[in-house]
Here is the input.
Amino acid sequence: MEKSKTITVFLLDGSKENCPKTVKIGGWDGTVFYLPTAAEVKQMLKTPDDTFKEAINKPGVYFLKSSNPENSDIYSEKIYIGQTWNIKERFTRHLHDETKEDFEEWAFFTCKDASLDTAGVKYLESKFLSLAKEANSAELIYGKDSSEPSLEASVKSVLNLHIENIKSILPILGFHFLISDAVVADASAPQAAVPITQEYSLKSPVCKAALLETTEGFVVKKGSQAVKDTTKSAPDLYVKLRERLIVSKELVDKGKFLEFAEDIVFKSRSAAACVVLGRSANGLVEWLPV
Here is the structure.
């Protein structure tokens, strides 16, 4: 069982939900700060609230979110991941950058300890970029130099704790780019490590597919088929997910059908059915126990 956490969300304006926030975890000296609009960022930089005043002059890693991705056929949002030695200076620069003007939501992390030196924030940026690329659930924008610096194991241990805590906080603030709707199953994991609780076959005769219900999710097996075209009833979320799987070559064209090149883990039976059938689908109905 994972260790429980006490998460505290502080609203700077308790009269409305969409307002600047800070989020902390008990026993951790880090804080994630959230600003819902660029206008709030400008105001914070000009006349910072006491909550933000000290933090914005510190180094940190930050995340900007836009609901206007360039590749809107595949992604529903765009994320910029960056790091800086001084949050205030970097945000001020971004506010005058035309390429950043469509980012509506801004979040940043900093902490009180000495782990966030130049190498530390670069390490965090590199790790979050790797996690975001693996999830492949948002269009990513980032700087040219995002390579991981060489650090001592003790320093990495502290920074990795920051990463785990930030990962727990970001979804609370509406940043879901580290969460994938479908992931490639770990082929190196022993079969016994992921118990299978039920096997299914696809009810529809239009294609052949096998599904395994496991403790990690619902796995569409490698070699399963999917229809080539989607219908108007297909939820936009799963149309985009299919496109991402095709782009990443995890769903490949085999002529009459698409074929899964890897075992793919979905969050639900319905998600798997929608992707396989290219239409709205109820997983409780479309998958038959074997």
Q: What stands out?
A: The mean pLDDT is 90. The longest strand covers residues 60-66. The chain has two domains: 7-173, 182-289. The CA atoms of residues 15 and 21 lie 12 Å apart.
